[in-house]
Design goal:
single chain, alpha+beta, three-stranded antiparallel sheet, 25% helix, elongated, Flagellar basal-body rod protein FlgF, FlgE/F/G-like
């Protein structure tokens, strides 16, 4: 028996999943530091006596586009962008580490240095906390300094700590459901890399190309229509075969 029906069904299912990934990319075209999601698929031959051209579609490990996004100058002291390859380290709710390129930082009510999403930034010795009411500056090497707002002399500057900057291999990272990247299962946390540097007063934007993403959405819609047409063809062929058997 020809498995065309199941082949088309698997193709339509995977196209829907790919369309969801593309739609997520489009939704984050303006999200700072966002890395475009890549949906990968592979063909799996149908095992049996069917035609050798029949193949199912199966999803493989999803990936991400690690190319750098555009830099936008803001002039804000708490805005930083990683220069070249590398990641900022944030603390997750379970106390672990995750990696991000989001550099529009803020100071929480408790004095913690966090991302705009409220993720605490990690330093070499844990989360960083600055004195209340102080003016913060971040050097290119990640050194965080705080100056008393009432002081205008160098003696009023205190070193809070150094941001932990890492640069693991892209193949060692996987994206979580929260959009943050983590080391793959079984891998230890990434070590600090002194070669990673920051640029202050700028924010890295999303690396999603809106034109290419829109074209991909249209292509996926056409592909889904083709798979649905195959399902209709398989149903029509089955009905014709039943009629022949009934009147045979």
């Amino acid at each position: 028996m020809d498995r065309m029906l199941y082949v088309a069904m698997s193709g339509a299912k995977q196209v829907m999943e790919q369309q969801a990934a593309v739609a997520n990319n489009m939704a984050n075209v303006s999200t700072p530091g966002f890395r475009a999601q890549i949906a990968n698929f592979r063909a799996v031959p149908v095992v049996g006596q069917e035609a050798p051209t029949r193949a199912f579609v199966a999803a493989t490990t999803p990936g991400a586009d690690f190319t750098h996004g555009p830099l936008t100058e803001t002039g804000r002291a708490l805005d930083v962008a990683v220069s070249g390859s590398g990641w900022l380290v944030v603390q997750t709710p379970d106390g672990g580490e995750a990696y991000t390129r989001v550099g529009n930082l803020q100071i929480g009510a408790d004095g913690q240095l966090t991302t705009m999403g409220g993720r605490p930034l990690m330093g070499d010795n844990g989360a960083l906390t600055v004195p209340p009411g102080s003016t913060v500056s971040i050097a290119s090497n990640g050194l965080v300094s705080a100056r008393d707002a009432a002081s205008n002399v160098l003696t009023g500057i205190a070193e809070v700590g150094r941001l932990k900057l890492v640069n693991p291999q892209a193949t060692e990272l996987e994206r979580g459901d929260d959009g943050l990247f983590r080391m793959r299962a079984g891998q230890p946390p990434a070590e600090a890399d002194e070669a990673v540097t920051l640029v202050s007063g700028v924010v890295e934007g999303s690396n999603v190309n809106p034109v290419e993403t829109m074209v991909a959405m249209i292509a996926n819609a056409r592909s889904f229509e083709m798979q649905m047409k195959s399902l209709q063809t398989a149903d029509t062929n089955a009905q014709s075969a039943n009629k022949l058997l009934a009147y045979g």
